[in-house]
Amino acid sequence: MAKAMPDDAFDEDFAGMLEDLSFAAEVGDMSEEEVLAEALAEYRFGPRDIAAAVGRAFMDKRAREAAFPLVTACDRLDAAFAELRQAGFVAIQAAGGSLEEGMALVEAACAADEEDDRWAFVFFHLEDVEKAIDHGRMHLAFGTIPTAAGERGQWPAEIAGDVVVEALHEAGLETVWDGTASKRIQVRMTWQRRCPNGCAPTLLN
């Protein structure tokens, strides 16, 4: 018999948790097990109720995945980012929750990278994912790395933008960009990322 929802289900905090878990499943960059671990550490509700909520969020998401096309826009985005890494970019998807957090992750990646061929960066953050989900538009931040070796350390950001747009077009994605460093690159896409492998350990027995 299905377990009744706790009284907290009607609490604003519980509703907020359900919304957060649904978004985490929709983003698709974490497995069910990883989301459960974070939820258990973050929320004040009982572990059985949290596990049930995580399971429901991922079950609903996997049901929607049945209608995804064979190759989604997110698959194309993955291909573009992989190509950009090959071209010397620090390319990070779902990089924190803001531009500031995304730039901090880029800087950390540059500091940790022993290779000296990284000359540019591109990323989007979780607010960008939310806009893609709601409105079908993803915005990418990009630029050059001033400390890059040799001539590439002096290249303007617009060159990085041109390379990003070319990689996106080659992957089959449509972009809108005015060609200047002051504007982020907009990608018109439907956000459909499949859940990664990984299943939460059961806490319901």
List the helices and strands and how they pair.
Elements: H1 12-27, H2 32-42, H3 47-65, H4 73-86, E1 89-92, H5 99-112, E2 120-123, H6 126-135, E3 137-144, H7 157-170, E4 174-176, E5 185-188
Parallel strand pairs: 1-2
Antiparallel strand pairs: 2-3, 3-5, 4-5
Helix pairs in contact: 1-3, 2-3, 4-7
Features:
globular, 7 helices, disordered C terminus, 205 residues, alpha+beta, five-stranded mixed β-sheet, 48% helix, 11% strand
Oligomer: single chain
Q: Tell me about the biggest sheet?
A: 5 strands, mixed
How many strand segments? Answer: 5
State the end-to-end CA separation. 13 Å
Low-confidence stretches: 198-205
Spatial sequence of strands, sheet with the most strands: 1-2-3-5-4
| Fraction of residues in helix | 40-55%
What order do the SSEs take from the amino end to the carboxyl end, as H and E? Answer: HHHHEHEHEHEE
- Overall, the morphology is globular
Descriptive account of the structure:
The protein is an alpha+beta fold and 205 residues long. The protein is built from 7 helices and 5 strands. The protein has helices at 12-27, 32-42, 47-65, 73-86, 99-112, 126-135, 157-170; strands at 89-92, 120-123, 137-144, 174-176, 185-188. The chain has a 5-stranded mixed sheet with strand order 1-2-3-5-4, sandwiched between helices. Helix 1 (12-27) packs across helix 3. The radius of gyration is 19 Å and the shape is globular.
What's the short story on this structure?
The protein is α+β, with helices and mostly antiparallel strands and 205 residues long.
